[in-house]
Specification:
single chain, about 500 residues, alpha+beta, Cytochrome p450, four-stranded mixed beta sheet, three-stranded antiparallel beta sheet, globular, disordered N terminus, Cyt_P450_sf
Length: about 500
């Protein structure tokens, strides 16, 4: 852990000041260079700066870089514009060729494709994640992983009073669980000896360099790639690591003697690889590898990024922890009465827990794992806000800023308050439209794995918070790193205390 120049509580006060439109300093447009110098000067504080700019410009902002650099863009967190982009006029706003080039390691995967090809492949994937054989196996492995690996590890940390990085632990947990869902193989990276996780580090590199590619002219990063220098050199090595991981894991699956595809009774085996390995559409090895990397990144990154922010917020809000435990208490009493040992809350236990889900949603509102969405304009259009966009423009939708806009969420928009998601009787969730709460995407590209992700997070959060008190170690700086993911730059260092039964 790196030393911090400021204590934890200062990050909240910084957020409060930065959301004041009166203090907003909008980017300056200079001759020749456009707005690029202003954007680069504030890159170190990208997330807060974006919120300041959008709050001060009415939720929308047009900008550009140097002439001829292809850096004309429109930034928005306006729900009306988002509904237009993601639903109403969806076909005019694909991810586009430049987005696919930025994430070329996943070329052909669901994350990078558009149009009819995307629709067909979404239908296929929806068939996989909605089938009982898949969801049941994912749920069972989640419970086993929490009971057999996470709980013993946390219990040891609590007993010894050892501080540790909760973010690293959650990323390792989700890497193992995602690999099991994708390949049917558990790499075993969440263990007492904490082996190196080169593939997980490589995924982080993909997202960090992907962020840099978004912020510079395409000609510049492509030249760096051709010369194999700077961050592009690092990315090339990361790609090799990920390709090797996929090949080695598939080989390990075969060496374990498990059938890939169907078992002897012609029933589908419960993992994603089995549904793709014999599909003629994925006969090309490069496409299959890119697709599997796509699924690994989607599974590990969304939940592995969100969980540390959940524990960060709960550690600072003991009143919210008490409400969650009160909601869990009848379930725990029933388990104890039936002689259950370690208290693990299974998917069926937490399925109907409304406040716990509200806590997850509130975290995703303030800390969306994919903090920005990118789209490309096909033909000239006028946004509901009245802003014009032109063919070839890049559109950036700031989910991070959207969760911090007073005009959308009220004067307490920067407060962590799960109650904002509940109806007055507190027994049901409010219906918040996806174009206002974009954590699970919206329109034709809405997240197909939403309920699986919620199930896994509920199981993990409920089990950890029932069994332990989480305490933040003082003196650390909690801030996002510069990445396409909203990961914590220095991790989340915590200590645990075991709760008495």
């Amino acid at each position: 852990m790196k030393p911090s120049p400021c204590p934890l509580h200062l990050t909240a006060s910084i957020r409060r000041r930065s959301n004041n439109p009166a203090e907003a300093v909008l980017p300056t447009k200079l001759p020749i260079l456009g707005m690029l110098p202003s954007l680069l000067a504030n890159m170190y504080n990208f997330h807060e700066y974006s919120s300041v700019v959008l709050a001060g410009s009415g939720l929308n902002f047009n900008g550009d870089g140097p002439p001829g650099a292809g850096m004309r863009f429109f930034i928005t967190c306006d729900p009306a514009n988002i509904q237009h982009i993601f639903t109403t006029n969806y076909h005019n706003f694909p991810k586009g060729a430049e987005f696919a080039a930025i994430f070329d390691i996943m070329a052909g995967g669901l994350f990078t494709i558009d149009g009819e090809l995307c629709r067909r492949r979404r239908v296929k994937f929806a068939g996989v994640v909605s089938s009982p054989w898949f969801t049941d196996r994912v749920a069972a492995h989640c419970c086993d992983k929490v009971k057999d690996h996470l709980l013993p590890l946390l219990a040891r940390m609590a007993t010894t009073g050892t501080s540790f990085d909760m973010q690293e632990l959650m990323v390792r947990l989700m890497f193992d669980m995602t690999a099991m869902a994708v390949f049917g193989v558990d790499p075993g990276f969440l263990s007492s000896d904490m082996p190196p996780v080169d593939a997980s580090t490589a995924m982080d590199t993909v997202m960090e360099v992907g962020f840099l590619r978004h912020t510079m002219p395409a000609s510049l990063w492509k030249a760096m790639r051709w010369l194999n220098i700077g961050p592009e050199r690092k990315l090339l090595e990361a790609k090799k690591v990920l390709h090797r991981f996929v090949v080695d894991t598939m080989d390990r699956r075969k060496r374990n003697g498990e059938n890939v595809g169907h078992n002897e009774n012609e029933e589908v085996v419960g993992d994603i690889l089995s549904s793709y390995i014999n599909d003629p559409d994925f006969a090309d090895d490069d496409l299959l590898r890119a697709t599997l990397i796509n699924f690994m990144i989607a599974g590990r990154d969304t939940i592995g990024t969100t969980l540390p922010w959940i524990f960060y917020n709960l550690a600072q809000n003991p009143n919210i922890v008490s409400i969650i435990r009160k909601e869990l208490s009848p379930i725990a009493s029933h388990k104890a009465a039936n002689g259950m040992g370690a208290m693990v809350f299974e998917p069926e236990d937490t399925k109907s827990l409304v406040y716990l889900r509200a806590t997850l949603y509130e975290t995703l509102r303030l800390y969306p794992p994919a903090h920005t969405e990118r789209k490309t304009v096909v033909t000239d259009d006028i946004m509901p806000s009245g802003h014009e966009v032109h063919a070839g423009d890049a559109i950036f939708i700031s989910l991070y800023s959207m969760g911090r806009m007073e005009s959308l969420w009220g004067k307490d928009c920067l407060d962590f308050n799960p109650n904002r998601w509940l109806l007055e009787d507190n027994n049901k969730l409010k219906n918040v439209p996806s174009h206002k709460f974009l954590a699970f995407n919206s329109g034709p590209r809405v997240c197909m794995g939403k309920e699986i992700a919620v199930m896994q997070m509920k199981t993990i959060v409920a089990t950890v918070m029932w069994n332990f008190d989480v305490e933040l170690v003082e003196g650390q700086s909690i801030q996002p790193k510069l990445s396409c993911l909203l990961q914590m730059k220095y991790g989340l260092i915590v200590k645990l205390k075991k709760r008495e039964a």
